[in-house]
Amino acid sequence: MSIEPIYFRGRRFWVLRDDLIGGEFNGNKARKLAFLLNSNLNHINRIISYGSSQSNAMYSISLLAKMRGVKFIYFTNHICDFLLNNPCGNYAYALKNGMEIRLSDNPSQSAKNECKDSQDIFIPEGVAMSKAELGFKEQAKIIMDFAKKNGIKFDIFLPSGTGCSAAFLAKNLNDMSVWSVPCVGDAKYLKEQISTLDPFNKVKILNPPKKYHFGKLYLEIYEIYKELLDSCGVEFELLYDGVGWLTLMANLDIFKGEILYIHQGGMLGNITLLDRYRRKFDM
Ligand SMILES: *Cc1c(COP(=O)(O)O)cnc(C)c1O
Fold it and tell me: Which domain holds residue 120?
């Protein structure tokens, strides 16, 4: 079953296990890339994108490119020494899948310039694009079918980067509210991002209990990750879900219905992060 209950700190939460769909190709990046996975790429030579050298999106595009026999070129502005010397996580697997990585001071511009003709596909950072909506129609249907069958009205919660997943999930649901929290940038930035993708969106935005800088390490994030793993047997992702669960637990009183948490995958990214946590906090 793709939606399952977990019991955490004495309360029931439902979890949509998108981390378990499609094997290696999973999580919200699989939802976002569904439009490519299901389309004819015979006339396509290359996929071109950009972003961070540890991004989950980068890894998922590399996998899709490999599966479909298309070249993948990725622009980034920095690869840290540690990663260069010890390739691991998303970066290592993307290279293994044949990704060609290029350094640039202006990765988004370089990626756009690299696209020459209709045989090149440009994918913006984090796959935040209107075509990404397709996969969320399917996700919304799974949630609505489950809710109807079990007579539940969910309050849905998912942490955001670009806000693309929250925007398109909310757009395709009727009668259920969607809540999110910014993990990259602040609430104002997230609102703007979501409005660009869907000007009529009704996504409700919560603030994290304190300011978390994306990619930085925080002991309380590791602690809630570990507590969820030990008490529920589910591994969540550290960058987004860490902030997500801390925010959810700090705001429990505002949710009237049953809470559905969307597990958006990204587990490969944990390898690099766990390594950094162990070194920083001497665990
Ligand atoms: C990419 C990612 C997000 C952010 O998704 P957006 O659609 O950009 O908001 C959240 N959680 C995980 C695990 C991710 O990999």
Answer: 28-128
